[in-house]
Amino acid sequence: QLQLLVESGGGLVQPGGSLRLSCTASGSTFDRYVIGWFRQAPGKEREGVSCISSSGGSTNLADSVKGRFSISRDNAKNTVYLQMNNLKPEDTAVYYCAAAPIPTLVRALCDRTTHPTYWGQGTQVTVSS
Questions:
Q1: Are 91 and 80 in contact (CB under 8 A)?
Q2: What is the average pLDDT across 9-20?
Q3: Are 125 and 13 in contact (CB under 8 A)?
Q4: Chain-centre distance of CA 116, in angstroms?
Q5: What is the pLDDT of residues 39-74, one digit of tens each?
Q6: Using CA atoms, how far apart are residues 113 and 86, in angstroms rounded to an integer?
Q7: Best label site of 9, 72, 103, 120, fewest CB within 10 Å?
Q8: In angstroms, how far is CA 73 from the centroid of its own chain?
């Protein structure tokens, strides 16, 4: 089982800039978990941004980030990445990673039909000039 999810890579960036978030897990069964990135802006509900299957072969992206964000994972490093390009002010939020065990479907995790088993503590992303 996983023990801890830790996000990193957040910060302040100008519109049009890029950031890469990392979600690193402790535990020996990382490759048995579907991982998702979620975000929550002030006054708004937490929403799914992108999710990836346990093998990395299937991904899901929210419409609002398609063409700008991509997700990947390195199971040897127990890490999932969220590459964010062409950032916009509306991307400003706290970004969380979360994990759900297989056979959770990627889309089910992202649209929160399935509740994650583990959550990270979050990392702030602020897009502002």
A1: no
A2: 98
A3: yes
A4: 12
A5: 999 999 999 999 999 999 999 999 999 999 999 999
A6: 29
A7: 103
A8: 11
Of 98, 86, 79, 85, give the one whose Cα is nearest residue 40.
98
Q: Which residue has the tokens 């299937």?
A: 58
- Check: CB of residue 122 under 8 Å from CB of residue 95: yes
Query: Do the strands 123-127 and 11-13 form a parallel or antiparallel pair, or are they unpaired?
Result: parallel
pLDDT tens readout for residues 87-120: 999 999 999 999 999 999 999 999 999 999 999 9
DSSP string covering the chain: -EEEEEEE--EEE-TT--EEEEEEEEES-GGGEEEEEEEE-TTS--EEEEEE-SSSS-EEE-GGGTTTEEEEEEGGGTEEEEEE-S--GGG-EEEEEEEEETT--HHHHHTTSS--SEE---EEEEE--
Structure token pair of residue 51: 């999710």
29 exposed, middle or buried (CB, 10 Å; 0-12, 13-18, 19+)? middle
**Structure tokens given for 34:** 């579907």
In one-letter notation, the amino acid at residue 9 is G
